[in-house]
Amino acid sequence: MAVKELHESPSLSSLYPKALLGSLRKSGGSTLPSTEFVREGVVVDPAHLAAYNQVCGFRLDDVLPATYPHILAFPLQMALMTEADFPFPLLGMVHVANRITQHRQLRLDESFTLRVRAEDLRPHEKGKQFDVVSELLVNDSPVWTDVSTYLRRGGGSGEKTSRGQLSQPSPNAIWHVPGDIGRRYAEVSGDRNPIHLHPITAKAFGFPAAIAHGMWTKAHALAAFEGRLPEAFTVDVKFKQPVLLPAKAAFTSWSEGEGWAFELWNARKPKPHLEGSVVAL
């Protein structure tokens, strides 16, 4: 695998025009690039961490939430997926799942190395899916791994794996999700996909309203377990129906084995937004 070393975080303001141009030029492919993006000496800005924690519902702390390094890796993910040899256009891809494994707590005063690559292109019932794998290392030892699974719609040939309609559970909490949460999360994450920012831009992509970021819903769900999480765990989610903003959503969780399972539902209709689990390592 070829390694592309970066000495600073890629500029998202220059990558979004590349993503738009790629949506006009790219139509698909059968192979993923064999390139890994690497950036050493990554440090956390305390003010940025505090802003992220506030938007996502975490307490202010010098221990990083397990979802926070995803924000550090996001510019490298964007750089990878806007390269000329990446087969799919970034716009229109659907983030269908995310799995984060934290081997120990990560602290604000640490310096990290980030590695990002794409792998495992495979069929899906609605098209093709693949993983973007991000790793965070300390002294060359992986301490955190993020696997984001993306779907490119069209020409699906995989077997259907739907688990069927569930019964809406009794909620542990009701989330009142404000209409501006997409813009607020975009400010701290850098993810300014137009489907999250405003009803007008979301409608241009076929949504009736702006939708919440999937990684915001995951982070807000993980915040519900704060104070009960072990130092090492895996938190795995599948994104279902989008959260149309503003929203009223029902969150429920229960103990399961060495951890918990959780779900987020539309509070007015029996439609799931997210299902996930937290498992201790």
Structural topology:
Blueprint: E1 2-6, H1 12-25, E2 35-42, H2 46-56, H3 68-81, E3 94-102, E4 112-124, E5 127-138, E6 141-153, E7 173-177, H4 181-189, H5 199-203, H6 214-223, E8 233-239, E9 247-256, E10 259-266, E11 272-280
Parallel strand pairs: 1-2
Antiparallel strand pairs: 2-4, 3-6, 3-8, 4-5, 5-6, 7-9, 8-11, 9-10, 10-11
Describe this protein's structure.
- This protein is α+β, with helices and mostly antiparallel strands and 281 residues long.
- The chain has helices at 12-25, 46-56, 68-81, 181-189, 199-203, 214-223; strands at residues 2-6, 35-42, 94-102, 112-124, 127-138, 141-153, 173-177, 233-239, 247-256, 259-266, 272-280.
- 22% of the residues lie in helices and 35% in strands.
- An 11-stranded mixed beta sheet has the order 1-2-4-5-6-3-8-11-10-9-7, with helices on one face.
- A hairpin with a 5-residue loop joins strand 10 and strand 11 (272-280).
- The longest helix has 14 residues, at 12-25.
- It is globular.
- It starts with a strand and ends with a strand.
- Mean pLDDT is 92; it is low at 161-165.
- This is MaoC-like domain-containing protein.
